[in-house]
Fold:
Amino acid sequence: MKPLSKMIALVTGASRGVGRGIALALGAAGATVYSTGRTVDSSAPTVPLPGTIHETAAEVTARGGTGIAVQCDHRDDAQVKAVFERIQREQGRLDVLVNNAWGGYEGYVTGAHQAPNTPFWEVRLPYWDENVDGVRWTYVASVLGAQAMVAQKSGLIVNISFPVPNAGNVAYGVAKTAVDRITWDTAQQLQPHGVAVVSLYPGLVRTENVLANAQWFDMSNSESPEFTGRAVVALATDPQVLSKTGGKYVVARLAQDYNFDDIDGKRPHPVF
Structure:
């Protein structure tokens, strides 16, 4: 029996990128994985990149799990609430919630982004919303996920984030710092109910967007999207995961702690 064969998971923003990689890794571990996203038709993508929620769900099933695609725009609370209601109706529980949906990089694939190190007063105002709106998506999904997990007295919430050690990108820094604060605050209240909450930091991930711009990156220490997924699986199968609640964890460091490799058999080294 696969280690997560009895677990129900929800991964937000799983049409492509890190979200898709997490869904696939959870599927390979046997989980039933609900994948949300906006893109349902490859001929009409919401951003000019490959990947749909239906393709993700099909691959989850092919890996040995059960993949279920749910179209959802996380800007609409009613749609998000409907996802959680469906999971409760169909499964009666939710074991793992991965808050991955975020719109901060959409400007980079639509051509509306600013050059690096652009002063904040010269950055177009919608860039704030693209970055910070995702914080609310994390909060709303956490509220709805916590309701289910508190009732069953168990669960794991993983918030995909990133460290921001340097000043420069105000909107991005505020967004990631806020996600980490959500992790810490919600963890304090959920720990007595048996629910763990962590922030997870991927490194340079070979997403569709990164690969399309690979000439600008040093790819020698890059990670597959499924490397982050394997970190989520390791956390979900750790009987002592509550001891990590409220913390911020680098994927490559968890690989050392839990002894797992990337899909190519290599183990990227931590860059922070």
Q: What stands out?
A: The two ends are 36 Å apart (CA to CA). The longest helix spans residues 126-152. The chain is about 40% helix and 15% strand.
